[in-house]
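Dear all,

This email documents one entry for the complex benchmark we are building for the journal club exercise. For each entry we list the sequence lines for every component of the assembly. Then comes the predicted three-dimensional structure of the complex as a token string, followed by one or two observations. Please use this as the template for your own entries, and keep the labels exactly as they appear.
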Amino acid sequence: METDLLVSLLARGVTPVDRHVVARRLGWALLAAALGATLLVVSFYGIRPDIGTVSATPIFWAKVALPVALAAGALAVTIRLARPGARVGLAWAGIGIPIAAVWLAGLIAVLLAPEGARVALVIGETWRSCPFNIAFLSIPGFVASFAAVRGLAPTNLRLAGAATGLLAGATATIAYCLHCPEMSAAFWALWYVLGMLVPTVAGALLGPKWLHW
Amino acid sequence: MQSVETRLRALLIDAMAGDALAYQTFLSELTRHLRGFLRRRIPQLSDDVEDLVQEILLAVHNGRHTYRADEPLTAWVHAIARYKLMDFFRARARRESLHDPIDDYIDIFAVCDDEPASARRDLGKLLQQLPDKQRLPIQHVKLEGLSVAETAQLTGLSESAVKVGVHRGLKALAAKLRAIA
């Protein structure tokens, strides 16, 4: 086929483009990620019994704020990486700042604690399962977000895959807060971040294959 | 150069609102620029230029919903062209060609080339390999110029199935191009 013919073929009968398609696709993926992770938390881990009282404390919301901020940052980065030629620029800060903040808070908590209590602050009671739980919860969001980003036009597939994985991981972590009993910033700084790193790395590895278009 | 960006961007914005004539003009001009760009970029692979032009055109078409009017068109087109070019190099395992820096996208609209070479891969033949529910909508709507309603009547598909068929078919066509690169 001559290129001229291809041009006519593409142009003929062309329909208006939905300008909100990027937002809509990622919106649905985010919804699937949140619902999927919540469903998995409820069916496999159970909601923590003291959720009623603990959800009235600022520290609980400080904990939820970490994955919420990271999800927002990852979303901003993913949106940019999913469109050709868009610069990520300042949006990287949306990922960097929450991580820096939780590390700082964790460090301060450890330094302020009496020497004997420091290790307990970092490893808590559930450090063995926490990263795996978060990785498990991120599976539905991982699949949904990859499907959404694949329908856009990412050109740096490894980076786009990593951002998409982080988006799924952060969303899963929000749901995990319904179950997780750990209330130390030092614990979140290490194990939550590690848990979210699993889908992020998986995304970086799978991106070049799954996001190819 | 600035005026090429401005003109092409205006055309694409009209095209995205559904103006087929603007889109035709946009794609034709883009074709000339892509051809000029690629001929200069990969002179050693001149036989592949027309294939790449077609592949990039399809990619631009299939990805046009990701263009935002407030962003420079040059950067958007360049990112797609670069992505397809890298893909092409990878597929051909001609890694040495990657030493050619293709980062300076300022010049993507710098050269025009009106003379098409013949493409090696025949899109028409690839089109014939698509399943009927994609092939027939593309055949009728895109090649014969029938309306969606007429095509629906002719093929027995619903109108939305015709639209989806065109959309998916063009994506499948891009994937086929990639597979035989």
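Observations: The mean pLDDT of chain B is 85. Chain B is about 65% helix and 0% strand.
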